[in-house]
Every structure is written in C-alpha cells, then in structure tokens.
Amino acid sequence: MTDSKTGVWFVGARGSVATTATVGLAALVRGEAPPIGLVTESLGEGAFAAWDRLVVGGHDIRGGSLADSAAELERGRVLPPGYAERFADELADADARIRPGVTLGSGAAIERLGERGWVEPCDTPAEAVRRVAADLAAFREATAVERLVVVLLGSTEPPVDRDTLPPRWEELSATLGDPARCPLRPSSLYAIGAIEAGAAVVNFTPSLGAGCPAIDELARRRGVPHAGADGKTGETLLKATLAPMFAARNLKVDSWVGHNLLGNRDGAILADAQNKQAKVESKERLLAELLGYAPQSLVSIEPIESLGDWKTAWDHIHFRGFLGVPMTLQFTWQGSDSALAAPLVLDLARLADLALRRGESGALGELAAFFKSPVGDRPPHALADQMRVLKEWLAGGRPEA
Amino acid sequence: MTDSKTGVWFVGARGSVATTATVGLAALVRGEAPPIGLVTESLGEGAFAAWDRLVVGGHDIRGGSLADSAAELERGRVLPPGYAERFADELADADARIRPGVTLGSGAAIERLGERGWVEPCDTPAEAVRRVAADLAAFREATAVERLVVVLLGSTEPPVDRDTLPPRWEELSATLGDPARCPLRPSSLYAIGAIEAGAAVVNFTPSLGAGCPAIDELARRRGVPHAGADGKTGETLLKATLAPMFAARNLKVDSWVGHNLLGNRDGAILADAQNKQAKVESKERLLAELLGYAPQSLVSIEPIESLGDWKTAWDHIHFRGFLGVPMTLQFTWQGSDSALAAPLVLDLARLADLALRRGESGALGELAAFFKSPVGDRPPHALADQMRVLKEWLAGGRPEA
Amino acid sequence: MTDSKTGVWFVGARGSVATTATVGLAALVRGEAPPIGLVTESLGEGAFAAWDRLVVGGHDIRGGSLADSAAELERGRVLPPGYAERFADELADADARIRPGVTLGSGAAIERLGERGWVEPCDTPAEAVRRVAADLAAFREATAVERLVVVLLGSTEPPVDRDTLPPRWEELSATLGDPARCPLRPSSLYAIGAIEAGAAVVNFTPSLGAGCPAIDELARRRGVPHAGADGKTGETLLKATLAPMFAARNLKVDSWVGHNLLGNRDGAILADAQNKQAKVESKERLLAELLGYAPQSLVSIEPIESLGDWKTAWDHIHFRGFLGVPMTLQFTWQGSDSALAAPLVLDLARLADLALRRGESGALGELAAFFKSPVGDRPPHALADQMRVLKEWLAGGRPEA
Amino acid sequence: MTDSKTGVWFVGARGSVATTATVGLAALVRGEAPPIGLVTESLGEGAFAAWDRLVVGGHDIRGGSLADSAAELERGRVLPPGYAERFADELADADARIRPGVTLGSGAAIERLGERGWVEPCDTPAEAVRRVAADLAAFREATAVERLVVVLLGSTEPPVDRDTLPPRWEELSATLGDPARCPLRPSSLYAIGAIEAGAAVVNFTPSLGAGCPAIDELARRRGVPHAGADGKTGETLLKATLAPMFAARNLKVDSWVGHNLLGNRDGAILADAQNKQAKVESKERLLAELLGYAPQSLVSIEPIESLGDWKTAWDHIHFRGFLGVPMTLQFTWQGSDSALAAPLVLDLARLADLALRRGESGALGELAAFFKSPVGDRPPHALADQMRVLKEWLAGGRPEA
C-alpha cells in the first residue's frame, strides 16, 4: 500500500469500457460498489493502490461527454438505474481531464468516429507522439500523481504486418518523421508517447500498442513495464478455461466454432472487415497452443445492433471420445462487454502501478491471465496456469532481468 | 513398464461401461483404437502396464452376455458399427470369467435387476465378502495375474448414513455376521472382499465402496490402495473446470442449475428417488468448495428413455459482474456416458496397478481428477489443480506415510 | 368502438403481472408506449375499447402498494428505468381502488402471503362470494363503468379434484355455506362473485376459477362470458407452435423435456409441490393433443431466486426422422414473465369486454390462443388454428347458443 | 391409387439425399421402414402411388457407386448399421440406371466434382438438353414407367441474375445453341430436358431449375407441372414455424441470426462464396414475408468437416415485448440433412406424380410447405397456412387454369 497517487489514463476515455470503469471507480471510492469482478480484490488488497489513490484522465477522438456515455450505458442495462446521476460529479471531473486523441493512420472506420473541431490533425507520427507525451506530462503536473498508467481502450485498428516492422527501436524511431514510411497506427503512437512520459502501458485492445520488439526495447530502456494485448473477457476466457479440460482428458477436438454477436460501437467497428481481421486472429491462435494441435476453427464477430453492449457468444465444440465416438459441447455466453472489461481495466491499472513501484520494466508476461494475446516470453495459455503465475509474481516479484 | 500381468475385475462386468472398456481394451491390444480419451496415454505411457498385460474378469448380477451388451451399445451408437462382431472372441473370453454378483442390501431397484438362477443369495455380509474374495483368488490363480485391481461399476445404491458407520474396522467387521446390524451395501462388501484378496479398489460409482474410515483402515493394514468415488465424466467435469474461472475473475455466481437427461440402465436406476439422492449430493457439494460460497444450486437427473446412453446436460449459470449486473452462461453437453467413462476406467486400472507396484496403500487422493467425490485428505477440487497433483504423483510417487 | 367505460378488476392487483399491466395501460393512455406485445393492436383496433376507457381496480391479499411493486419491477429490469415515478399518479389512483382479497381455502403457501390486518377472514365461502360481489358493485358505482371484466391473476392454488365437483350449480351452490363441504378455492369464489355481479371472468391462472360445469352453468344463466385458463406466455406458447411442425413433417417425437426456471413470487409459490402440480399438469396435456400420441414428457418449474421475473425455459426435444435416425431440437427462452403476460391481460380485458357488449355468455373457446388449458367445446390446440378461430370470431361473432 | 409405374429420376443420384431416398424407398417397399418423416403417409395414402410402383434412375457427374455412397452414409450415422448391405441389390439396380450428368456452366466448384472419363462434355446447352431428354426417354422405355418425375438434387450452383433472363420461352430457347449467350446453368438444362421429355420437375435445390417465367411457359405448353425451390428441411422450417408466433403475439423481432454448420459435400460446395450466395438469399427473404417487416437478419452457412451430414443450426432471436423490454429465444437444431430431405423427396415424387395424373401443369404453388422459395403466385409462407393449402389441394385438386 502506498499513499502516493497514480494517474490512470484511458485512451478511448469516453468509450463504454472507460466510462464503466470511471463510474465503477467512483462507486468503489465511495464504498458503494461490491468488489465483484475485480481480480485484485480477491488476491490480497494490501499490495495494491487504494481506489481513492487513482486519478482518471484520458484521450478520446470523440467529443460528447462522460455523462452522455454513462446515461447511454444506463439505458443499455450496463450501469444500474440512477448511476449516471449519482456519480455525475466524478464523471464531470474526469471529463475535464480528457484531451483530444490521435487518428493518424487509424483507418477509415475509426477516422469516421473522430469529432471534427475536437480532434486536431497531426502531420507526422513524431508530432502525435510528442503531443501524447505532453498531455501526459501536463496531467501529471496538474494532478500531482506520482506514477502513470496508460490503458489503451480505443477501437480495434486494422492489423499491422508484424513481419515488416523494424526489430530495433533505432530503426523504427527513424520512420516517425514520415507518415509514408512509418508503419505504426495510433495505438503504438500512444504507447510510445506514454513510455517517453515514463508511464506504464496496458494494451486492452487487439491493436499493436507496445507489442513489438522495437517498442519493447524502448520500454526497457526507459525502465517502464507494459502489458497486453486484447483483454480476455468472454468467449476467449472460456476457451482458455475449457480447452485445457479437453487436453486433460485427451479428448480429440475436431472443430471449435465460435460466433460472437455484439451491438455496441466496438461491434460496428469490427464490421469493417479489415479491423475484424486483427480480432479474429487473436481469438484463433489460442486453441492450437492449448490443445497441442489445431482443430478446424471458425470465429466470427458480427454486429447485431439490438444487442447493444450485450455480447452473446455461441460456441460449438465437436470432439471425439473413446473409439472415436463424436460428442458435442455447446455454450452460450451472455454478458455485458463493458461490465466484464471495466473491472479488469481497474485491476490492470493497479497491477501496472505495482510493477512501476517495483521498478520492473518491459513485457509483463505475468499478467497473461488478463489477455488473449499476452506479451512476454512464452507465457502460459491455460487460465489456471496463468493464475498461478500471477499469484507467484504477486508474492515474489520477479528476478532482475 | 513391467512384463507381469494385472487382473482388472469389473463389478458390473456386463454393464455399459465395463462392456465398452472390455471392447476398447481389445481394440487397443490389437492396435485398432486411437488412444483418444485415455489420460494415461498423454501422461507418459512408459510408467504404465501395456494394454496386453491386462486381463479382464468380473462380477455381475445380470445374466446375458458381453456379446449382447456390445451389440446393444453398437445399436445405440456408442460402439462403432461392426465392433461387437470384430471383438467377439475377446468378449467371449472375458465373459467366461464373469461370476455371479452380490445383491444383499442393494435395495429394491437394483435387486430387480438380479437374474434369477444366476445370482446366488447370501445369508450374511460376511458370506458375501468371502465369496467375493474366493472369486478373486480363483481368477488370480486361473489367469496367473500378479496384481489385481477391482473396479466398482455397479448401479448407484441407496445412500448409507455415513455418520452412523463405526469408524474402526474392528467394530465394523463385527457387524458382518448379521445382516440386520450391518450397515453396508454391496459396493462395500465387494471392496472388503477385494482388499482381503489383496486387490486395489477403484470405486467409479457414487456408492460407498471403500470410502469410509473403517474400510480405509483395513486397506492400510492389508497394504492395498483404493480410489474413488464417482467417476467424473460429464457435467461435473465441466463444473470442476468452469467454477474456477468464475472464482479467478471474482464473478459472483448466484445460481447454478444443472439438468441431466439420461436413458440407459443407470438412468432407470436413478429414477428410483433413493438412489438418485446419492448421485445428486455428490454433484452439489463441489460448487461450494470451488467458489468459496454456496450459490443456489439445483441438480436433477432424469431418465429419458429415448436418449439411451447419450447423456445430455444443460447447465444454466446466473452470475453477477461489475456493479452487480446479471449475466448468464449456459452449456449443453451431449456425450455417450459409457464412451466417456470406459477410458477413464482403463486409466484407473493402470494407475491403481502402478500404486500397487509402488507399494502404496490407503486412499489415493492423487487420483482426484477422475472423481466427483475424491477420497483422501483434502484433495483439490479444481481440475487444473487435480491434474498438477496427478502429474507430481506420477513423477515422484509419494512420501511414505 | 364505444364511449362507455369498462372496469378491469385484477385479482392479485399488486402482483407483478397486474402492476405491469396497470403501468402499461397508463403508458398506452398517454401514448407513451409502442403497441408491442398487444394482440388486439394487430387485429383491428376499431372493434375494441380505447385504452382510456378502461378503469383499473382489484383485490389483493397482500398489503404494500402498487408504487412499491412497480419500483421492484423497475429494479428487476421488467419496467424501463423511471417508469414507476413517471406513472406514480395513475398507480396511486388504481391502488386506492384495491380491496382486501379472500384467502379461505387457498392452502398454506398462499395464506402465508396474506397481510395480517389487511385481509379480513371469512367464515364461509358464501360470505367470501358476497364480499367479492359487493366490492365489485361498489367499484361499478364509484367509477361509473358500464361493464366489468374480472381477471384472475392470483398465485397458483393447490389443485382441486375436478371429478368430485358437483356438475350442477344447484348442488355446488348448496355447499357454499359450509367450508367443510365446499370443494372450492378462492379463484372459484372470486369467479362466482364476479358472475353474480354481472362481470365477465378471465382466468389467467392455472387454478379452477370458473372452469367447471356448475360455474359455467351459472355464467350462462347470468348471461356473462368467461375465458381461461392459464395464460400461455412462454414455453407452452412455443409448444403450441412447434409441436404442429413435427406433426406436419410426420417426425416422431420420442421425448420432450422442459425445464422452467423462475425467480419471482410465482416461482416461490410453485415451489410448494401441491401448487406446482396444477401448473405442470396444464403444461403436459398439450403435447398429446397436438401430436396425436404422447411422447415421454417431463416438465419442471423450479424457483431460482436470482432470476426474479426472468423466466428461462430450456426444452429438449428428441425426435426420430427417416429410417428412425435420432435428431434433436433444443431451445432456450428468456423472457420477463410479467412483460409477456401483462399485454395479454389487457388484450383479454378488451376481448371479454367485446363479448359482453355482444351479449355472449358461457365459455369463450374462441380465445384459446391465449391459454394453456382453454375452456370451451374442443377448442383447437395449435397456435395457428387458434389464431384463425380468433379472427373468425372477431369478424363474425358467434351464432346464438 | 394406380397400378401403373412412375419413374423417379434423381439429378445427383449418387449424392447423399438421393442415396438415402433410394435406400429408404427399398426399405419401404419391403415393409422394413416405419413411415416416419413422410408427409404423404400422414395425409391419406390412398391418393398416392404405392412405394413399389416407383422406379429409380438418375444423372450424376460423379462416378463411384450407390453402394459406396450408402456405406459412407452408414459410417456417418445417417443410415442405420447394416443397411448398405441389406439393400445392396436394390442399390445395384438403381445404380445401373444412372447416366453421366451435365456440367456445362456449373461453375468451378461443381465442375471439380465431375469425374473424368464419366462425364461427357457438351458443346452447347442445346446439346445438354437433348442428351437429358434422350436419357429420360431411354429410361422410360427400358422400365416401362408411365409417368416421369425428375427431382433436382445437385449441388448448389452459383446464382443466375434473374433480372436479365428473357421472360419468354421463345427468346430463351434461342440462346441454347450458344454457350456464350445462354444464361442458364445445368439445373435449368435438366429442367428443360425433363419438360421436353414430358416429365414433372421438382427442384429441391436453391438453383434456378424451372423457376423462371420462360421455362414455366414451356412447362405449361407441354402440360407438365413443376415445383420448387430449395427443400425446407431444417432452420428455415423452424423460421416458417416460429416467425408466425412472433407475429401472432405482436412481439417485435429486432434481429434474427442463424448460423448453420454442415460438413458434407453440400457444405464444401457452399464454402465457395458464389454458391453460398444463392442459398443465403433464399433463407433471408422469408422473415420479412412472415413478420411484415425486416428485422436485422444474418444467415451463415459454414462447412465444418467433422459434422459430416449432421447439420447444426444455432438461431438467436432478439425481440422486444411489452414496453420495449428485450427478450431472447435461441434454438439449436441437430439433424441429419439427408435423412430430413430424403423422405420429402419421396413425398414430392408422389405429389408430382399425382399432379401429372390430374393433368395439372405449370407451377405447383400448393406444394409450398416443402420449399424455402416456393414457386407459384403468392404462395403462403407460414407453415400452418402452407399445410392447409396442401390439404385443400389434395382434397379438391385445383381449378383448370
């Protein structure tokens, strides 16, 4: 526990997840929310920053207000009735600390979301990085927070071809001055700006963020940790849980089909095929890791407007048992995407803050339990193994690199 | 690996599980079955008896033949087409080694299954125990097996009031001469007879078997191990897999409802309310262990004739996430009960055989992964933990008691 | 269309269904509700009383207030956020017209619900009938309504043995003076009181109500119509829809299992085994009618507290196709019980009012589409047939008896 | 009933549906199959040709044999164990009457299926039509059948742009001599050849077949009836059953998502995006017809190899009830595609034969119950209405055109 304050900076601060996290944090500070859904609350709270030590700020490319977002979530049955009003003051405070985001290189679907007159165009990636770092420095000064955690929560970007990325920071940084040569999208520019400002980076999205060797190198040099990618909130959480069962029983999975219906803004962005690509890849890789072979696999994400934030996943698992007899497991998962993600985001803010205090830097593979595509050196993929690694890390920190 | 032979004695030898195991073993010996569903095949085969070192025998209270049972399973889509005929010789051999079983104290539903003219009534529990031990001794002599594993696969018995059982073998054994005083049902008489004959005991049923202090004491004295109870093949396997996920994410499970439809003989026996009691209790205890609190829980097992051996479980899990928002997970599991159980039975025969060779005695809590209600001193309940304990046991054996 | 007013009297006026109907009616009158869920709105509104011509009153054995009930339904996500407050005036008006209900002969589970100090005990069924009729007469006078429809919405009563009921009104009425001889429960006493007061009776519950020859005779004599029983809102609606499909395709249904989870007060009452009996019987009869044979059938209703008003039904239909090959249809239905029932209740009030205006009397089999156990002479059971009959009745009325 | 024989000519005679129909017909003739799944058996058999009056022949582009196809279906659990052998003689007889099919214009995916050395290429559509008609004439002569019904069962073709098809037979027929000008695919060439040979045409596929004004004109001129298109066996059957329920209750369907998994050859063909287009369109049109408005709708068909012939459909229906409260119905349908289709194919052979005997010609809209996209002048879409129309047609025939 520590008395000093930590800044939690949401990229996508007016989005559903960040809004739910901001309302939820206010409720936790006032003692009006049960600790449900918060992993850190069940892992020994002593180690972590108290809720009232966290100060929220962020970037967003959309205008509007946190109050509007909260009201919409209340209508959509994600926030309990009356919450938008009850925590109006805290929302207004946080809203005042939101700065215009960066859209350079984000692709057409995301750029359409950017509010004219609010978002200020940048000419080069380098300029975007500088602006992000400057916003963070100003936030740090204004709020007197000692440490900073930047959490990437923006819309899924079109994928980057990782094979063509320069492996060294020196080479990658040389491209920042020229938008035509720079392969990075905003998630990575935010990450670089954050690292330059001494912040830890948590990438809850499937976009690249800090997840390439060159940016990891920068983070190590600057002595800050980073974690990601792609928060594990629903169907993939179940995959990471169920696939080890089939492996443990030596049952042969022939096919695993997952259909995800989703109606919020995220769903709309994902409808843009290029952006969906990144998400689906992240979901499919897992099975081969957990089973030791690749069953026929199909993952779809489809925008169904009427569902709003309520993601519905249907998975059909066809497997063979003794003497080859075919059997079936199906599940349907119905959960509020934002209500599942928000507490994990608060958990990750606490965990990254802890890593900062401990002076750890580079990829935090120990936080693999939270992610679909965990960074780090061969992190485990089964949820039970990931939880064990997390607890060991909490207990003992990790050896110096 | 060892060259000596091991006898595998099924109690309920003509039932669906034992028949499937017997056919499957024959297929494995001939190299005609893939190792699907066999846990030991994925855990380093070297340690275990080769399939051709296992010799099958057993008790049953039903007449008929293994050939008939196999043909019925083929019609029911549990065995692949043609298997009953293809392995007719092996089935006939095993059938010739089946002896009449014991019904004393088994309750009305099970007694009705007993074939007149085949089952020979016993006057006292002591006589039943002696007959079981004598059958095993004769089997050992006739087949020249070095070790014996008795696997209890009989129908679920009405529950025994565990609180009234004498805790010491001396006291319990004193009741065996008098049916009116003896609280034991056949599963325990088989277990005692097996232990007296130096056999390891595996209880795949929810009945008592060797699972009480007095019989455990006997097993320790005789230097034989025992494991059980209640094979974990379907819905409970999923509970042991999924409940830790809710715990890991600190999601609050409000209710967990499970409805099981089943059409085979087991289903018919379970329709007898008294017998169902034992099964349902075994299924409900688990959640509180895994979650740390007891959600509202409901488990039904209903005999639906048309389903035959194809068990269908529907589970509805109602849970709350961040800020108390209610969410739902449902799953449907459709599997052949016998095809799920049979390979585990063969695994357990190998594992108990290994324990015999290692000279271990008493409750084998390390085999908890296979059971709904594992014996032993505080065995873990989460499947992932159970698998870790199993692997550690395989790697290192266990310290002398 | 008519300008005169009609009184709609809910028995169980503070229950979830009546409260939802009362709020919904207020919203319809103010033009603030879309006509979703209302059958009469899609059948040519011209024939029916306008919403602002309906005046709500009722009986209840519980104290509390409609305002409390509405607030609870809002928390339970049945009413949209803010509705309890928005329609507070209309709720208060209706609440002022609620009179204490009758508990004589309702069984222990329901009697426990009765509020002390509010419910006034009756000594005889005859006294209960007189009090009901007097309450209705007072309501008619106070509100100047021209016609009266009494809708039974109370908790499911323990079943009455229909075979022992006197078939003639003369005989049945002779028992009303003696509680020990009278076989009737409150639903029938309300019905008799209503008929004596010249009201139409709609029985939305599985209880007896007016559904026996003697009370039907009374209704015919008094010239009032009655309809029922047991509103068809969820699983049974699906049965009446799906079973004809299997019949049309000549697919052989081997088993139809339905499990219903429900958490509201109705669920709690149904947990009382005696009361559940009535409900389950009403649900099971249907299949044999629709298929022409009786498949193995199982229906359970289980109270799961966390679900509140949100009924979840899982049905598993096992059927055989060509050459006997087994196939499966499963469905899960998740709906708010009260939000499904309330618009049908308003529809039935309009339809019964129309029948009153037309001078029809006795059992309204033409309203079978709304009920699980329709009254009348061989009403159709398939939903499509029931809708056709309903439309024909609307178009042409029915011939004089 | 009639004593004369009718030829039933399957296009795609060695495919799963035709093979299942051929085996099933043999079983029916021998009295060894229950009449399950056969609509005509429940509609008064007297009117229809007896099973032993039907003689099977057909076209196929694949080589192999009916015996092979039947064995594969037996392994795939579509045919009961032993059936391929039991009906080997009948299969061999039918196989001897199979002629090489036509691939001209079928698209790459289907052409790949064509067996080299078996399929004889045609230079023009006109030549293909002549060959089809000649094969049918030869079959008629060889088997002495009095009437002919051609049932199209081939793989789904890439869609034809219906808007560009010449509306008059005169114009369309003028294109047949030139492959570059002729817009038709094989299903239509088979249909034209059949009509020229005096056969009735039943199109069980989503391909065009006889389903355009010009070919309908030809059928009317030649005095033969035709029916189609796209047999309604699974998910769409449920849509035609369930959507009227939502309409009857005035519940507002916001979205209807259907995912279909299928592993047989049909699934593989459908994976070819162009071919899938035709199938999906056929499935989506229905909802707007039945509901009166178009909810958001999504239909996918995905080839999942391990499922073989066992089609699994998951549908998620999101709808709103009273006061706009959102509710959900989900269903999972697991059926053997071929076992569902085959009896309908036999039914249609009987029904088309009846129409031939009655002298009816042109589109048989009265058979709409069997099809996803029924031909004819505004046929009904709700299953219940379609069944009523079918029964009326059986009872009374139809007025002369």
Overall description:
The structure is a homotetramer of 401-residue chains. In chain A, helix 1 links the parallel strand 1 (6-11) and strand 2. The longest helix of chain A has 22 residues, at 337-358. Chain A has 401 residues and is an alpha/beta fold. The first copy, chain A, is 41% helix and 18% strand. In chain A, helix 1 (16-29) packs across helix 2 (66-75), helix 6 (125-143) packs across helix 8 and helix 10 runs parallel beside helix 12 (273-291). The mean pLDDT of chain A is 91. Chains in contact: A-B, A-C, A-D, B-C, B-D, C-D. The interface between A and B is large, with 57 and 57 residues.
Structural class by secondary-structure content of chain A: alpha/beta
Strand order of the largest sheet of chain A: 3-2-1-4-5-6-11
Number of helices of chain A: 14
H and E string of chain A? EHEHHHEHHEHHEHEHEHHEEEHEH
Number of strands of chain A: 11
Low-confidence stretches of chain A: none
Which two protein chains have the largest interface (Cβ within 8 Å of the partner's Cβ), and how many residues from each?
A-B, 57 and 57 residues
- Terminal residue distance of chain A: 25 Å
Mean pLDDT, all residues of chain A: 91
- Report the biggest beta sheet of chain A as strand number plus sense, adding barrel if it closes: 7 strands, parallel
Query: Which percent bin holds the helix content of chain A?
Result: 40-55%
Shape of chain A: globular
The quaternary structure here is homotetramer
- Radius of gyration of CA atoms of chain A, rounded to a whole number: 20 Å
Percent of residues in β-strands of chain A: 15-25%
